[in-house]
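Let's practice the habit of predicting before peeking. Look at the sequence and jot down your guess about where helices and strands might fall. Then scroll down.
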Amino acid sequence: MSWQLLTALSVLLFSLNGLFHRVLMKEESSDPIAQTIAFYGLGGLFAFVVAIFRGGFHYQISIDQIPFFVLFTAFGTLAPVFGFKALKLIGASENSILSSTTRLWVVLGAFIILHEPFSLAKIIGTIVILVGIGFAQWQKEKLAINKGAIFALIAALSYAITEIIAFYILRNFDVPSFSVYSCILPVILLLIIKPKSISKLSFYFPPRRALNIGLVSINDTISTMLLFLAYQVGHNAAQIGPLMATQTIISVILAIVILKERDNMFNKIIGATIVVFGIILVV
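Done guessing? Here is the structure:
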């Protein structure tokens, strides 16, 4: 399967995940750390099942890879915790705009860390995509640098760092097995740092909440594995990174079609058009 198709499938599933969060997970009283533990814990279990069916779980980590796994665990834990904190403090449109900056960091990391050939067109294309996303998501809110915005930017940078480290590790690692580590290691770290958070997991025991977070976790894990496979096939994070940002626009389109969200249609259409131009520059 080509990296383009794998990336497209990953974008589509991540976009559906955005709808799952909006339709299924409307409860605001959950604890960010407990939610991270539940979210990644279920994702890790699902990834382990996939690994077993794809030839077994490859647990070996070489000595040279250990520092990268440590960094991945640290930033992979910070990212969702700050992301969930941001969602509680700022509006959805503001959070989406700030979170999309992840893609610019990924492109820069691809050039600097992964040593991919530098391309000005890819940087410009990424910026154009981010402008389109911002235009489509803008709700006439005043962007302010407050605690919620800072949390969103920290989460965006942390997600970018984890993605670049993941791509580096995946040059010599099995995708399903790495997906297990990418989910379980942050859970272990959080349980060590905040052991009392385990008592808050009871929030997800009711069947409806358990189903909700289970669906989101499984969908997110599949999406992530497709993203990892796309990189293993193409070794082109500078292209895959900005293309993944289009999930925001796909979510907007799906919300129009499925949820009948027709507000701010002019901005959404113009934003989607701008994103298309950005995609042309990146690809």
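How did you do? The chain has one domain: 3-282.
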